[in-house]
Amino acid sequence: MIDFQHVSKIFKGGKVAVDDINLSFEKGEFICFIGTSGSGKTTSMRMINRMTDPTKGKILINGKDIQKINPVELRRKIGYVIQNIGLMPHMTIRENIVLVPKLLKTPVEERNKIAEKMIDLVELPREMLDRYPNELSGGQQQRIGVVRALAANQDIILMDEPFGALDPITRDSLQDLVKDLQERLGKTIIFVTHDMDEALKLANRIAIMSEGKVIQFDTPDNILRNPVNEFVEELIGEDRLIQAKPNITTVGEVMLNNAITITPEKSLSEAIKLMREKRVDTLLVVDGSGVLKGFVDVETIDRRKKTATIISDIINPKVFYVKKSSLLRDSLQRILKRGLKYVP
Ligand code: ADP
Ligand code: MG
C-alpha cells in the first residue's frame, strides 16, 4: 500500500536526514518507526503526506507516486496526529471531533453522525458532545483525542509520538485504545516513537532507524529473536528480550500439543525439558476451572528463571504446551487481564 523506493532527504546545508530507505507497508498494518532522536523518523513520516518532499527517490501509495496525487485527495487519504493529541479548549467536543471532516467539507448532518459514532466508539455518553474539553476528565479528553484522529475516516493515519508526554498509566490505556480501534476499523497506522515498549506493544512491524537509515524492518518477534546488530540489541534492552510475540491472530487457533497437570516447582525442569523436546514455545497456565493465570515462553524461562515462579502461584495448575507460531501474546494478555476462561 505504501512503498518507499530509495528515498533520501537532504536538508539545506547538507544534513542527510533520511538516507536511501526502502520500505513497503501493507494495508491494515500498524507500523512503528523507532530510533534515537534525530535518526530521521519524523522526516520519513512527513514525506508520506508531503509535508516535506524527498530529495531523491519516491513514495508510492497503492502504486501511485504521491507527487502525482492531488493534494486534496492525499489529505482525504492520510490523517496526521501530532504530539499529545490535545483538544481545542474553545471548541465543544463535537467541534473537536469533526475538525478535520469540516476542513474536508463534509456536510453538517454527516459530521453529526460521525461525532456520535466516534463518541460511541470510546463509550462516552453522547451528551458530552456539547460540552467543552475542560468539562471532561483528563482521561476522557485523551480518548476523544484518539478518536478525533479517526473521524475523517482516512485510510492511513500518521502519528508522531502522540503519547510522548503522558503518564505511564494514561499512556498504556490509550495504546490499548488505539490498537483496538485500529484493528476494528482496519486502518493503516504509521506511528513514530522512541519507546521500544510502545513499539513492541503496538506494531505488527517495526522499522528501526539510525542516522537516517533503516537498519532493521521486521516483526517485533523477529526483532526480539534476531536483532541484526548490537545497536538493535541495545535498543531492545535485555529486559525486553522476553517479549517475543508469535504471529497468528486468534486464541481460537491455538494448537495444543499436550495438556498435563503438574505440581508446582517440582516439575518445572520437566516442563522445560518437554518444551525443548517438543519444540514448543509457550506454556499456558490455567487453573482448575479453566481461567488463564499466566503464560511463559521457553526463552523467558531460559533467560530469567525467576519468571517461571508464575507457575507456583496457583494450586493445581494445568499447563498446556503451545506451538510457537500459533499463539498471540496480546490476545492472551487480554484474556489474562479480564480473568476470562481459556477453553481449549
Ligand atoms: P527524529 O524524528 O528521528 O528525531 P527528524 O526526522 O526530526 O528526527 O530529524 C532528522 C535529522 O534532520 C535531524 O538531524 C534534524 O536536526 C534534521 N532536520 C529535521 N528537520 C530539518 C529541517 N527542516 N532543516 C534542517 N534539518 C532538519
Ligand atoms: Mg521526531
The helix content, as a percent range, equals: 25-40%
Strand content: 15-25%
What pattern of helices and strands is seen along the backbone? EEEHEEHEHHHHEHEHEEHHEHEEHEH
Distance between the termini: 36 Å
Overall spatial form: globular
Unreliable segments of 5+ consecutive residues: 241-267, 302-328
- Are any ligands bound, and if so which? adenosine-5'-diphosphate, magnesium ion
Subunit organisation of the chains? single chain
- Number of alpha- plus pi-helical segments: 13
- Main beta-sheet strand count, sense and barrel state: 6 strands, mixed
Mean pLDDT: 78
How many DSSP-defined strands? 14
Class per helix and strand makeup: alpha/beta
Strand arrangement in the largest pleated sheet: 6-7-8-3-9-10
Radius of gyration: 22 Å
Structure description:
With 344 residues, the protein is of the alpha/beta class. The chain contains 13 helices and 14 strands. A hairpin with a 2-residue loop joins strand 9 (205-210) and strand 10. The longest helix has 18 residues, at 168-185. The site of adenosine-5'-diphosphate has 11 residues, from helix 1. Magnesium ion is lined by residues 41-42, 192.
